[in-house]
Amino acid sequence: MSSINSQQITMSAPKRTSTKAVILSAEFTCTNSFEGSNQHGIVKADATTNAEAVKIMDSVLRAFVASPGMDSTWRAPSEFKSTDGSITVRPSALGFNGIPWISDLREHYCTK
């Protein structure tokens, strides 16, 4: 029998008040069991173009790198979506092969 701990965290932000796209919500689900841990994250933004969504994703991933409390074994968000769902971008748009670990982000951004 395995023990599973699951936690879901949702953060929200106010609507856009300038011409810059903003993050509206971020939802992370984390599970721990005897088989290992898993994290899944989706970030929603009021981006109106694919390029805006990629810029937001890049900013969020850079913020993860700059956060010393982020464990290297945690995963980055797997999707960045527009509020209406018409735009979805993934870390592969920035050159990652799949969903990067925090250690992958640090290697990617700290060597540039």
Largest sheet data? 5 strands, mixed
Discrete helix count: 2
Task: Count up the domains.
Answer: 1
Compute the separation of the termini in Å: 45 Å
Low-confidence stretches: 1-17
Structural class: alpha+beta
Summed over residues and divided by their number, the pLDDT gives a mean of 78
- Total number of beta strands: 5
3D structure, described in words:
- This protein is of the alpha+beta class.
- The protein has one domain (5-110).
- Helix content is 23%, strand content 31%.
- Strands 1-2-3-4-5 form a 5-stranded mixed sheet, with helices on one face.
- The protein starts with a strand and ends with a helix.
Give keywords.
112 residues; alpha+beta; five-stranded mixed sheet; 2 helices; disordered N terminus
Task: Give a quick summary of the entry.
Helix content is 23%, strand content 31%. With 112 residues, the chain is an alpha+beta fold.
Please give the structural blueprint.
Elements: E1 5-12, E2 23-33, E3 36-45, H1 50-66, E4 79-82, E5 88-89, H2 102-110
Parallel strand pairs: 3-4
Antiparallel strand pairs: 1-2, 2-3, 4-5
Helix pairs in contact: 1-2
